[in-house]
């Protein structure tokens, strides 16, 4: 029996309970916060998602990224789900002499959910007082680090540094400026590894490059702002559709 191809969220909603193993959903799902379990349901039922279910879920949660991709991030980056986790970090960071820490609120984008605390104890105090909502990500602050945005989309590759001398948040949304950046082989290899691990067919990747030349993953997403990029919105969307069409063709070619 031929498999069905779903190419719109409206069609997906109408046929959600009719879908069978082998059917394909093309395009990112528009989900409300808390609806990510639908991705799990589709995957368990054997329904193929393009982009993959795991990449869509990772794109929606910084906490999930820290849990799954933490080995590529600044050492001691941790997802924090409750006060017990946070108390463990108070001990760990205190033992290792960690000073300032960065807190990333889950699901907040554009640099608006990035907080800087003088110490993990300060973050703990705010959490106990109810001013810091769980879950979130904590990591040691890296001073003077470069923020590099990488766009990997099919054959298209672009990288640029985002910099704001007046704000540790270098996001262009927060007033930073973008300048072209030449990726070295180690940085490109890191991007490729993260994409394979997270099953990303294309990605916007933020790298953190330390003054000592170490490269760490900061964040990854299927979509991101194009401010500062050379590629236009129209060309970007066309390239995304081209990747989707190729993946769908590969899917069809694998069928008996």
**How many E strands?**
12
Q: Helicity level, as a percent range?
A: 25-40%
**Portion in beta strands:** 15-25%
The CATH superfamily name of the largest domain is ATP-grasp fold, B domain
What is the H-and-E element order?
EHEHEHHEHEEHEEEEHEEH
Oligomeric grouping of the chains:
single chain
Return the CATH class of the largest domain: Alpha Beta
> How many separate helices?
8
Q: Could you describe the largest sheet, including whether it forms a barrel?
A: 5 strands, antiparallel
Shape: globular
Do you know the CATH topology of the largest domain? D-amino Acid Aminotransferase, Chain A, domain 1
Give the N-to-C terminal Cα separation.
Answer: 11 Å
Strand order of the largest sheet: 10-9-8-11-12
Unreliable stretches covering 5 or more consecutive residues: none
How is this structure best described in words?
The chain has 3 domains: 1-50, no CATH class; 75-140, Dna Ligase, domain 1; 146-241, D-amino Acid Aminotransferase, Chain A, domain 1. A hairpin with an 8-residue loop joins strand 5 and strand 6 (114-117). The model has no long low-confidence stretch (mean pLDDT 93). 35% of the residues lie in helices and 23% in strands. With 256 residues, it is of the alpha+beta class. It has helices at residues 9-15, 37-44, 53-60, 62-69, 83-96, 120-128, 185-198, 233-253, and strands at 5-6, 24-26, 48-50, 78-80, 101-105, 114-117, 136-140, 146-153, 156-163, 177-180, 202-209, 215-221. It has a 5-stranded antiparallel sheet. Helix 5 runs antiparallel to helix 6 (120-128).
């Amino acid at each position: 029996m031929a498999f069905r191809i779903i190419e719109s969220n409206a069609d997906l909603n109408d046929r959600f309970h009719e879908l069978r193993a082998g059917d394909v959903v093309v395009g990112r799902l528009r989900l409300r916060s808390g609806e990510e379990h639908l991705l799990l349901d589709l995957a368990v039922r054997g329904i193929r998602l393009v982009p993959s279910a795991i990449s869509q879920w990772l794109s929606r949660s910084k906490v999930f990224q820290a849990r799954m991709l933490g080995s590529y991030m600044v050492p001691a980056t941790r997802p924090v789900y409750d006060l017990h986790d946070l108390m463990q970090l108070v001990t760990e960071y205190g033992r290792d002499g960690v000073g300032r820490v960065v807190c990333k609120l889950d699901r907040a984008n554009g640099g608006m959910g990035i907080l800087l605390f003088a110490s993990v104890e300060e973050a703990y105090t705010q959490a106990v007082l109810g001013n810091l909502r769980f879950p979130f990500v904590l990591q040691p602050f890296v001073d003077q680090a470069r923020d590099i945005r990488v766009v990997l989309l099919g054959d298209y590759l672009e990288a640029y540094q985002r910099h704001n001398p007046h704000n540790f948040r270098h996001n262009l949304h927060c007033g930073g400026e973008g300048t072209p950046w030449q990726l070295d082989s180690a940085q490109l290899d890191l991007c490729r590894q993260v994409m394979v691990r997270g099953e990303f067919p294309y990605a916007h990747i933020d790298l953190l490059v330390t003054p000592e030349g170490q490269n760490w993953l900061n964040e990854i997403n299927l979509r991101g702002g194009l401010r500062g990029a050379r590629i236009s919105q129209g060309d970007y969307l066309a390239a995304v559709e081209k990747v989707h069409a190729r993946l769908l063709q590969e899917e069809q070619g694998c069928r008996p």
